Amino acid sequence: AMTTISDLPEDVLVELLSLLPVRDLLRTCRLVCTQWRYVVDLTTLWKRKCQRDGFYRQSLDRSISDWKIFYMLCHLKRNLIKNPRAEENFQHWTLDDNEGDEWKIEDLPGAHGNDMPDPTVHKYFVTSYGPCFKSQLITLKKEGYWNQLMDEKRPEITVKDWYAARFDCGCRYELTVRLLSKDYIVLEEFHPEPVVIEQWSDARWREISHTFQNYPAGVRYIWFQHGGQDTQYWAGWYGIRVTNSSITIGPQT
Questions:
Q1: pLDDT 10s digits, 194-207
Q2: Where is the F-box domain (predicted)?
Q3: Which of 45, 201, 27, 199 is nearest to 114 (CA)?
Q4: CATH number, domain at 150?
Q5: Is-contact 226 103, C-beta < 8 A?
Q6: Is residue 243 part of a domain?
Q7: Whole-prediction pTM value?
């Protein structure tokens, strides 16, 4: 007698279906029949996909309540800030304040500066003697993070930024990150005290990092803004330098 794919043992079906992309599994396979829907929803299938794509670790076994969501969050994870390293000029950035001699892009290490710990970063944005601030607004739905996921699972939102002064001039650095509702109401904010760096500092690159957890439901946008200026009002580009900014969303750790 002819056997159909439905006659296959469950473990073989799991193995076969786990080879397919998420989109096909959820939009096509899950709708084929009751049995397929049952298999697509199995924990073992999503755990298998995690193993295949390198997201699985034995130590996670007990702590993960939903392997399907865990897989999808790992699969989606990437830097949501576009052009974070000044490789595409000022593309994707909104220049909110552009005073003094305005924002500029320079090559690392720059005059009186240092290289980044990460050798793959080659450029940075630099501020002048008047306030220089730039921002990006991230629309979560556009990046693949649907409303229910944000509201029910509240995945961790991690923000990182790198900043440095030049050795011969003092400057200040500021960062503001806001989680916004669909009406752009601020649901949560990370806005540390401005960092003031004195003249003749070590001019090292420093990382600032913050993770939003258990934030309110309703987050639809993330607004990221950074910048500053020099503190000595020198013509040119003696203010804070910034590069390698990132926003990533991942499963609760």
A1: 999 999 999 999 99
A2: 2-49
A3: 201
A4: 2.60.120.260
A5: no
A6: yes
A7: 0.91
